[in-house]
Fold these 2 entries.
Entry 1:
Amino acid sequence: MTKAEQFDRATKLAMKGDVTLYDEIVHSDYESMNQRVVVNKEMSKSILSGIGDLIAVGPYAQDL
């Protein structure tokens, strides 16, 4: 499994509330920008696990 595939899987699991793989593969110093707001690893996990109840993730092209 490539790193991208592993990250995709970790993201999908986090959206279902399981952040175990996300914790394992995402660096503790992770930061990104989202609409000029700095998002760190803990905030990212919180966002991902919270949106799982709000949206339905369908199959991606590579999942078909």
Entry 2:
Amino acid sequence: MLKPIRLVAIGLALVGCATSSSDVISSSVASTTSTVIISTSSAEIQSSEVNLTSNTATSAIVTLNSKWSIAMGGATLTQFYSVSENLTQNLTSTKVIEVQRVFNLDGSFYGYVYEALVDGNGGRNSNRFRVGLANSIYLGFESDSHREHNGFGVVIINALKNSLAGQPAVYLNAWQIMINANDTLVGKTASETINPLADALESITDHYLSQINVE
């Protein structure tokens, strides 16, 4: 009678072992499945982070400010962005107050835009203008504000507005435009307007040429 009891006990032990092994295998599979799920989730997070970085980089580009429209010769400003640069001593001494380095949206260099606040017939800091240069030409000239006499200083400013755009980036071209306009005046000259404009335009042109020569 003892033998059957031992066999039953051994059988139960084997069933127990089988059950235990099955549980271990199931646990292992579940653990493996859990690991895969976690790994997939991690990949999704990483992908999300990459997209976030990409979107952040794109949104960081601020296209060119609308105030530069005329100085840029009427170009579509959303095709460009700019980076502010430090003023050189020469620019500061001729009362240039801002310089922006302009890039195409693909990051390639395009040109420069400048703003100056110079003296004139209307007194200290009475003439604010902007000018742009790219591809070795003057893109445009804008008189933002001034206190000039219609028959004198305004004649000089209008000449620059109408004739500077498209001229090769050579300071003497800007100077000649002003001198030609001055020659049309009767009885007086507009030297109080011309001289400060000329000084600023010369330093602007020199700065632009010095920068493109190292591109």
